[in-house]
Amino acid sequence: MNTYSCFKDRTALITGGASGIGRAVSVKLLAAGANLVVWDVNSARLAELRALAPDRIETATVDVADSAAVRAAAGVAKARFGGFDYLLNNAGIIGRHMSVTRFDEAELDRVLAVNLKSVFIVSNAFIGAPTGRAGRAIVNLSSIAQRTGGMIGSIAYATTKGAVHSFTTALAKELAPHVRVNAMAPGIIDTEIQKDVFTDASQIAAMADVIPLKRLGTADEVADCALWLFSDAAAYITGISVDVSGGR
Ligand code: NAD
Hints:
This protein is about 40% helix and about 15% strand. By secondary structure, the chain is of the alpha/beta class. Strands 3-2-1-4-5-6-7 form a 7-stranded parallel β-sheet, with helices on both faces. Helix 1 (about 20-30) packs across helix 8, helix 3 (about 65-80) runs parallel beside helix 4 (about 105-125) and helix 4 (about 105-125) packs parallel to helix 6 (about 155-175). The longest helix has 23 residues, at about 105-125. It is globular. The structure holds nicotinamide-adenine-dinucleotide. The site of nicotinamide-adenine-dinucleotide (NAD) has 28 residues, from helix 1 and strand 2.
């Protein structure tokens, strides 16, 4: 049996699926036969994704930190597909440069809300829409920043990713044995979020040099890890975080 045949006719909820890692996971799950519910703030990119298979993809322009918007979109998706089997809590931002001695309170609130509060809100929506099938699973996007502290200026981001790590451990206990909950901690992955951090090629080359595998990762490589964690091949794995970081 193919490892990913378990995804056929299942429904996956993916946040931040319009680009980068979320889009890569969406495309792979679609190819494996899943239905998709994808929420993002980027409407144009969502429309491009939906065009791949309108009969199997439900998209909505949703700010995942907005609980009323999440509840409304979850209701629409549940009416269409009956519930959710998988959840990728993936939407995230780095936010503007800040330090503890100098930060904009509104920006701090925004990073905490998008990267952390949303994970509570969306997980609640997922749990409240069961499908009645076994094998439900959640994968949360943490980051190696949860242990390295991240780049200078991204202290709020690193803090939220540490909290996502703890959230994963705690929720895995809360939802066992019915739902498995794991996290992925990517290193430096070549997606648009990095454009907020690296402005030129020399910075990227310097970064690649400190990674044991000597290159940035790709969104597809992180997506492969997500599919494995969702799949029945990982049926005895819950409450862990997998580094996808080239050894960093
Ligand atoms: P990305 O910028 O390509 O994708 C993030 C997506 O989230 C975008 O489509 C964006 O529109 C969406 N989004 C942002 N705010 C949102 C909101 N309020 N509501 C709904 N959608 C929202 O970046 P990516 O690299 O694919 O990042 C995905 C996740 O992986 C993030 O949580 C990020 O922190 C994490 N991560 C990325 C890296 C990396 O190096 N790329 C490393 C570690 C962790």
